[in-house]
Amino acid sequence: MSAHSAKTLARHPVPTTYEREQFEVDLITFEICDHPDHGVTFALIAGRAVSAKDRRPLFSGHVSRRMAGDLRRLADRLDALEDKLGEGK
């Protein structure tokens, strides 16, 4: 079972064997769990959703070895695009 599912959140709102780390990136919240039995997983959650039903994970999965590098490449591309936005935006 996913450490990010609604049932898990209801049963274990404050887990004792692992913690849920959340990183907000504009409209998306990345949640990471280093679960002792199920490994390292992540979930993408609509970060500014109004109702609780919309705050459940849009997607979850296991962290892979190349994921950090892929995210760095994405961040580099976003840096380049932000430069095009100019000042004040």
Provide key terms for this protein:
single chain; 89 residues; alpha+beta; four-stranded antiparallel β-sheet; 28% helix; 31% strand
Terminal Cα separation, in Å? 42 Å
Principal-axis shape: flat
Strand content: 25-35%
Structural class: alpha+beta
Describe the structure.
The longest helix is centred in the last third of the chain and has 19 residues, at 67-85. This protein has one domain (6-85). The model has no long low-confidence stretch (mean pLDDT 82). The protein contains 2 helices and 4 strands. The chain is 28% helix and 31% strand. The chain has a 4-stranded antiparallel β-sheet with strand order 1-2-3-4, with no helix packed on it.
Topology (elements, then pairings):
Layout: H1 6-11, E1 20-25, E2 28-35, E3 39-46, E4 57-62, H2 67-85
Antiparallel strand pairs: 1-2, 2-3, 3-4
Can you summarize this structure?
The chain is built from two helices and four strands, in the order αββββα.
